[in-house]
Write a structure and sequence with these properties.
Strand content: under 5%
Order of helices and strands: HHHHHHHHHHHHHHHH
Number of helices: 16
Largest sheet: none
Radius of gyration: 24 Å
Structural class: mainly alpha
């Protein structure tokens, strides 16, 4: 699930928390990094569970409407296209999802069931839903496109849901855009031939998990050395004037230059410029690019950067 850019962003957040906090111990912050990435995965799983809970609520809604004393013909014979949506049903029937939700004790939508109800009400009153149920038959492609649109246009931008997540976990606010984008891509990739849901793991492989730990610890352990390099390459800048996030991003990039021989210099620079655009000031990417470009050229010339593999310089 996590890309290398996501991992770098989580490491950046952990380093920022360390420098802004009491700096108790590297071990404590390493635990924070692990916990915050696990919480990010929980948020991803809650998107699945929210869809399941919305479907369950919709099913109950139709059953209750059918039992009304003066039920209309539409209420007596409701259009259950939403309940029978092939992708939605596949997610609801997935034992892989339900087991993960149960193991991680993600009971949010059972405990706070007003949110699935709120989202269902939004879906029910939308033109998107009205258009969807017009057709009597549907394909997997049409069902998938509808769920993708529901998530993109109704669930993801919902402010009440956003406020709820903020109240539940402060780190989720930074994770929210990343998780929503990842979840949307996951829905879009589903195929009719897949039959069952394959839930992505938090890390793609052991190498990525180790990269998160090593980038955090190596950057922190080399902080004094990396601070000195930064000072030398920004002589006209008062260090207090350099944004904290910029300083952390530069140090992380320098750490990759010096201590991660398999990562190409250009990849490192590009990744941190993108993070600067997302997390720092409008001019940060230009400033960071200038520092990293100067250091990389100097260090490649004097042999301080030694990359392995073809085309890594």
């Amino acid at each position: 699930m996590l890309t290398r850019r996501h991992i770098r962003a989580k490491v950046m957040q952990s380093l920022y928390a360390f420098h802004q906090g009491s700096k108790d111990s590297m071990q404590a912050e390493e635990k924070f990094l692990k916990r915050s990435t696990e919480e990010m995965y929980n948020l991803f799983l809650l998107d699945f569970e929210l869809l399941v809970s919305i479907r369950d609520y919709a099913d109950d809604y139709f059953k209750i409407a059918k039992k009304k004393f003066l039920a209309t013909e539409e209420e007596k014979n409701p259009n259950k296209k939403f309940i029978n949506n092939q992708l939605l049903k596949r997610i609801s029937d997935s034992s892989a999802i339900s087991n993960l939700v149960e193991d991680r004790k993600l009971t949010h939508w059972k405990r706070d069931d007003e949110y699935p109800k709120l989202i269902w009400d939004k879906i029910l009153e939308s033109d998107l839903y009205a258009d969807y149920i017009l057709a009597e038959t549907s394909s997997f492609k049409e069902d998938k496109e509808f769920i993708v649109d529901v998530f993109k246009l109704i669930i993801a931008p919902n402010e009440d849901l956003y406020d709820y997540y903020e109240d539940q976990n402060l780190t989720w606010i930074d994770d929210f855009p990343i998780v929503n984008t990842t979840f949307l891509k996951f829905l879009q990739k589903q195929k009719e031939s897949d039959e069952v849901i394959t839930v992505p793991r938090l890390y793609k492989n052991v190498e990525d998990e180790n990269f998160a730990k090593e980038l955090f610890t190596k950057t922190l352990l080399a902080n004094d050395q990396l601070t000195e390099i930064t000072k030398n390459k920004t002589p006209n800048w008062d260090q207090d004037r350099i944004a904290d996030i910029d300083s952390i991003l530069i140090k992380m990039a320098l750490c990759e230059f010096l201590k991660f021989p398999s990562i190409p210099v250009r990849v490192t620079i590009n990744e941190y410029l993108e993070l600067a655009k997302e997390y720092s000031t409008p001019k940060s990417s230009t400033f960071i690019n200038g520092v990293l470009d100067t250091v990389s050229k100097e260090y490649q010339t004097n042999g301080k950067i030694n990359k392995i593999g073809r085309g890594l310089m």
